[in-house]
Every structure is written in structure tokens, then in C-alpha cells.
Amino acid sequence: MASFIKEISFRWSDLDPNFHVRHSAYYDFGAQHRIEILEELGLTLRVMQTQGFGPVLFREECVFRKELKLSDKIFLHTKTSKMKADASRWSIIHEFRREDDTLCAVITVDGAWMDTKLRKLASPTPEIAIEALSIFPKSDDFIGL
């Protein structure tokens, strides 16, 4: 699998005053897709809550290349671009692509796992998180940290 792919539909509320997709909607779609993928891989919100850990982001950045409009047919491609061997730190990229594969935007997030009880980075990384991220497709330029 080259990436997790999801077709997304824009809502009226996702538009800005110029009638294209507002900047913050991109981040919302990326966050939703990450959670859906983790759920699919067995790393559900219930599991994270029960085991007392969850993802924490250090950086979230979007590079906008082509404007998106309400009627555009867009596919969100998600994969890892960097990761430590123990999955304690990672980077995930989301590519917003048109039906013709035109790259419209790229979100990059850098994150780790946080112990929600201690409010510190989880150490060691929970086994289920290692398993889930090991299944994640990797970008062509993937870097092991």
C-alpha cells in the first residue's frame, strides 16, 4: 500500500470568503483522517484512553499549492515520512490531490505519544502504537530517525 487514501467532500462551511477551501479546514481533514486510520489499525480512542496515552503534535504545517473549491473531487493520501524505530517520534504527511493526481496541498505533522496521566512523553512507547505505526505506509523519501 502506497498510502491510506480517502475521498473527501467539502461543505459550505469549509469555504472562505473567496469561495475556496479555508486554510483551517485542511488541518481538520488531516486530523480526522489520522484518527480514522489509527482506528482502522486497532488503535482506537477507547484503547488509548484505557492505556492512558494519546498522540501529541509538536508541529503542523500546510503548504498550499493549488486552490480547492467546493465542487472539486479531492483524495487525501496519508503516509509516514519519518519515524524512530520505536515509533516514539514520527512525522505524517497528508497530500490533497485532485482526481487527475494534481497535488494541491501538503500537511506535515510531527508528533509523539503522550502519557495522559503523567502529562509527559510516553516511555516506553505503548506496543499497540508501535504495531499501528509499523503498518503505516511510508513515503518514497521516508527517513528512519
- Mean model confidence by pLDDT: 94
CATH architecture: Roll
Helices, by number, come to 3
Distance between the termini: 22 Å
Walkthrough of the structure:
It is built from three helices and seven strands. It has a single domain, classed as Thiol Ester Dehydrase, Chain A, CATH 3.10.129. Helices cover 23% and strands 41% of the residues. With 145 residues, the protein is an alpha+beta fold. Strands 1, 2, 3, 4, 5, 6 and 7 form a seven-stranded mixed beta sheet that branches. It is globular, with a radius of gyration of 16 Å. The relative contact order is 0.23. This is Thioesterase. It comes from Flavobacterium hibernum. One of its GO terms (molecular function) is fatty acyl-CoA hydrolase activity.
Descriptive keywords:
145 residues, alpha+beta, Thiol Ester Dehydrase, Chain A, seven-stranded mixed β-sheet, 7 strands, globular, fatty acyl-CoA hydrolase activity, HotDog_dom_sf, Thioesterase
Question: Gist?
Answer:
The chain has 145 residues and is an alpha+beta fold. The chain has helices spanning 23-40, 45-51, 127-135; strands spanning 4-8, 53-64, 74-83, 89-98, 103-115, 120-121, 138-144. Strands 1, 2, 3, 4, 5, 6 and 7 form a seven-stranded mixed beta sheet that branches.
